[in-house]
Amino acid sequence: LENALAIPATTVDVLVLTNTGLKAFPKEIEKFTNIKELWLGHNEIAALPASIWKLTLLKKIDLSHNKLTQLPKEMGQIKNLKVLNLSNNNFAQKEQERIKAQLTGVEVGF
């Protein structure tokens, strides 16, 4: 994982860290300001920092099969976001409704 995150951040459009055993969101991802797709599925991530939503060029985020129960309210700042996969997490119905209401125009899957 350290080697994968050591590449020059500005040259990366797609970052795939699926099924890598992550227990937390790697802070190093924040330097990848040009990424358009972020794949973090099949890990054990329980929380996301508000700063993830500063990756404003993201179009697709896969957070499926993690341990998430909520997302930061700052998520609405990603204006280019088109697809958000949140399937197989632990979101309560009320949180699912909040996310869908905040991300109109985004295909959100639970």
Based on DSSP secondary structure assignment, what is the total number of beta strands?
A: 5
- Mind summarizing the main beta sheet? 5 strands, parallel
Average pLDDT over all residues: 92
Question: What sequence of helices (H) and strands (E) makes up the elements?
Answer: EEEEHE
Structural class: mainly beta
Q: What is the count of helical runs?
A: 1
Low-pLDDT runs of 5+ residues are: none
C-alpha termini separation: 27 Å
Please state how the strands of the largest beta sheet are arranged side by side. Answer: 1-2-3-4-5
Principal-axes shape call: globular
Task: Give the amount of beta strand, in percent.
Answer: 5-15%
Share of residues in helices: under 10%
Radius of gyration computed on alpha carbons: 13 Å
Question: Strands, helices and their partners?
Answer:
Elements: E1 14-16, E2 37-39, E3 60-62, E4 83-85, H1 93-102, E5 107-109
Parallel strand pairs: 1-2, 2-3, 3-4, 4-5
Task: Summarize the structure in words.
24% of the residues are buried. This protein has one helix at residues 93-102; strands at residues 14-16, 37-39, 60-62, 83-85, 107-109. The radius of gyration is 13 Å and the shape is globular. The chain is mainly beta and 110 residues long. The protein has a 5-stranded parallel β-sheet with strand order 1-2-3-4-5, with no helix packed on it. 9% of the residues lie in helices and 14% in strands. The mean pLDDT is 92.
